Amino acid sequence: MATREIYETSFDEDIQTESSANQCPECDGWVTTNSVETVCEDCGLVVDENRIDHGPEWRSFDEDERERTGAPLTAARHDRGLSTEIGRSTDANGNELSGQKRRRVARMRREQSRGRFQSKAERNLAHGLGEVRRIASVLEFAESVRDQACQLFRSAQNEDLLRGRSIEAIAAASVYGACRCNGHSRLLDDVVDAARVEQSRVANAYKTLNTELGLPAQPVQPSDFIPHLASELDVPADIRQRARRLAEQSESTGAASGVKPSAFAAACLYKAGREEGRWLTQADVAEVASVTATTIRSHRDTLEEQVA
């Protein structure tokens, strides 16, 4: 009596062979196909690539069918956004819960809140990231800048830079460092106004981050501060364009070297306003740039001497 194997070979998505194309075109070796690519077992030649996407198909744009995927991972949360939140008075279908179930859910919510943080460091991380999100929201930064600031705070905690410094100062310094790394013309005073600590502590924390982490912060030019200061002073477009030309000309001649960029940009706006017939006061320009009127006059004299 003829016999055959009990288990027959069937189709396998991960490892499969094809009789019509099971030979390597180079060495006539055996070719196998997995979920990623088709490879020759003898010489290692990659004959074909056929990566299978095991994620959602996204063929339907119905909101009800896309709820199963959940929120993406984010660096703005201490747990990367993987934790869940227990509801309060309704179930998944929107129905009201009974009194017994509400009490049970309240106990579950309490226990989840107690076990949310595994250590003191994780609790500090959650507090710091919350402060970073708050400052970024007040300053109306993009999500990319916010996430970069959160990652910078994580790096500071991993390097043990929070020891001896307040969490709020490191959080504000992380936001300012993300601004500097992305080339945003934001003053340190803008970040300090949104933070809950003094300017000296934020400046000290940023200096520590810049030194220990080696931030790729590029020097800011006076021309980068022209749009921000002009918006604060509410000057017309002709004065703004003239001030930018003055700032760019001073940068090319080296007149703006070694000075505070925001102060020199304010002096350019002050000089451009006088040339265009709009008399901006030195006190108003100095207040916007967070400098003194004496600094504005000094930079104005430099502009009149070196810039035509």
UniProtKB/TrEMBL annotation:
Biased composition range(s): Basic and acidic residues: 108-119
Gene3D superfamilies (alphabetical): 1.10.472.170, Cyclin-like
InterPro entries: Cyclin-like_dom, Cyclin-like_sf, TFIIB, TFIIB_arc, TFIIB_cyclin, Znf_TFIIB
Any Gene Ontology biological process: DNA-templated transcription initiation
TM region(s), chain numbering: none
Domain of life from the UniProt record: Archaea
Location of the Cyclin-like domain: 130-211, 224-305
Residues noted as binding Zn(2+) in the record, renumbered to the chain: 24, 27, 40, 43
Ranges of the Sequence repeats in the UniProt entry: 130-213, 224-305
Keyword Metal-binding attached: yes
A Pfam family the protein falls into: Zn_Ribbon_TF
Entry keyword annotation includes rRNA processing: no
Gene Ontology MF terms in the entry: DNA-binding transcription factor activity; zinc ion binding
Matches recorded under SMART domains: CYCLIN
Key words of the record: Metal-binding, Repeat, Transcription, Transcription regulation, Zinc, Zinc-finger
SUPFAM superfamilies, sorted: Cyclin-like, Zinc beta-ribbon
Region Disordered, annotated ranges: 85-119
Polar residues bias spans: 86-98
Summary of the function given for this chain in its UniProt record: Stabilizes TBP binding to an archaeal box-A promoter. Also responsible for recruiting RNA polymerase II to the pre-initiation complex (DNA-TBP-TFIIB).
Family under the similarity heading: Belongs to the TFIIB family.
Protein name, UniProt field: Transcription initiation factor IIB
Source species: Halobium salinum
Name of the coding gene: tfb
